Structure formats: C-alpha cells, structure tokens
Amino acid sequence: MPRFAANLSMLYTELPFLDRFAAAAADGFEAVEYLFPYEHAPADLAARLRDHGLEQVLFNTPPGDWAAGERGLACLPGRETDFRDAVAKALDYAQALDCPRIHLMAGLVPEGRTRDELRPLYIDNLRRAAEMAAQAGREVLIEPINTRDIPGFFLNRQDEAHAIVQAVGAPNLKVQMDLYHCQIVEGDVATKIRQYLTTGRVGHFQIAGVPGRHEPDVGELHYPYLFDVIDEVAAQCGWQGWVGCEYRPARGAVPGGTSDGLGWMRR
Ligand SMILES: O=C(O)C(=O)[C@H](O)CO
Ligand SMILES: [Mg+2]
C-alpha cells in the first residue's frame, strides 16, 4: 500500500483544527497535509507534529483573497509581487514545519484573458518560485484542478501541467496529481499514473471518491487497483512520495465521522 497522509482541511472537521493532528495519529496516519497553515503560529503547528509523531508533507502557498474568490496568484497579471511574497511566506512555514514541498495554486483566468496569453507569466512566476524554493531546499508543485469544483481555474489537465514543468525546466518543480480531478477532467487514470510517475515529475498524489469527493471506496474509481499501480510503478522507479487523503467524509462533521469511514485504508 502507498503511504497515506491525512488532509486536515477536509478530514476531522468535527474537531478544532489543532486537535485534528491527534485524531489523525490515533487513526494510524504518520503524515498530514492541509490547505493553509497561516492562521496558526508555526511553533504551534510544529508542536502538534512533534507531539503526535507526524510528518508534514504538503500545504499551499497563500492563495490571495480567498473570501473574495481568489484561488491562487501564479497566473495573475499584476500580482507578481504578491505571488513572490506568498511563496516567501510559505517557505518560512515549510522551514518551521520541516515540510519538503508546497503547492503553488495557479489561480483563476481573469475575465477577458485566455490561458495562452497567461502562460508566459505563469512560467516566469513558477521559475522564480522554484529558484526561491531550491535555495530553501524545498520542492514546489502545481496541481491540475477540475473546473466544476473551481470554475475558471487556470490549470486543468495532467498533460498541460507536465508541459509547463518541462518549459520551466527546474528539477524541484513537480506535479501534484490529484486522481479525483484527473478522473473528472480526463479519465484513463491508471494509464496516466504509469505515464507520469515514471518521469520523476510527480511530487505527490491526492485521492477522493468520484463524483462525490467522499471516501475513496465510494464512487466510480476502483482505488485498490490504482494503489497497486502506484506501488508497482513506485517500486520500478524508486518513487517514495505520499498519497494525500483529500476527501470530505460522507457522514460529515459528526463525532467519529472520519474514523468510521477509514475502512478502505484498514482493508
Ligand atoms: O482542491 C484541491 O484538490 C487541492 O489540492 C488544492 O489544495 C485546493 O486548494
Ligand atoms: Mg487536490
């Protein structure tokens, strides 16, 4: 089985955020990821990781004004300074949390602009972010996201993401391959795992059932088969990354709602 990380933004939401670390450890997780750490002091988060023997394996750069609808800054004209400040802030947290990788959210295509127009700016921003991260000894990731969940998101497909990674040409820039989004946008998931994991350019996986984004054993994707594919290819190419459990438990934010749904992992 691959190594699973609990996504604390989506799992254990019946608990206050800082209490979710203990809950994940009690359920057998050895690593966590989440969207944003910035409401908490790095020292408080580091203490939770230490107290519960957890590794921090991923989080996102600040996405801009989330409440106003922003979903990342990397493709946005005129926001280059904000983007670099966001990367710098994320790298400070990564250092404090000993987190090896951060996700650079691409952002929404602004009204009246096209993806083709924005591509050179996105590539420049990623190149600069990869340089900053390399100096700090970290990886940076980009993630294709489906436009049903985030309408207008700049980056949607695995092939686009891998073409961008090649164009940037930085060894520490990789793709965050979320199999939930991959299935919704393009399908043929097992073949794509084989195709891309062997390139050394997949930095992290995420999973959820499709279409409900609930537990991986609910929905149209057969995860036991996909986990075998990841294991097989990882053994061939020496990949040692994590699979983030980024789903909303079907029972919702009720006591035991996450733990009771972990049968898929225990099996
Ligand atoms: O939505 C997703 O799948 C993610 O992984 C992002 O972190 C969204 O913020
Ligand atoms: Mg994801």
UniProtKB/TrEMBL annotation:
Q: What is the lineage of its organism?
A: Bacteria, Pseudomonadati, Pseudomonadota, Betaproteobacteria, Burkholderiales
Can you say what this protein is called? Hydroxypyruvate isomerase family protein
Q: Which UniProt keywords apply?
A: Isomerase
Q: Does the keyword Transcription apply?
A: no
Naturally occurring in which organism (per UniProt): Piscinibacter gummiphilus
Xylose isomerase-like TIM barrel domain residues: 21-267
As for family, the record states: Belongs to the hyi family.
Per the record, the domain of life is Bacteria
Could you state a single Gene Ontology molecular function term? isomerase activity
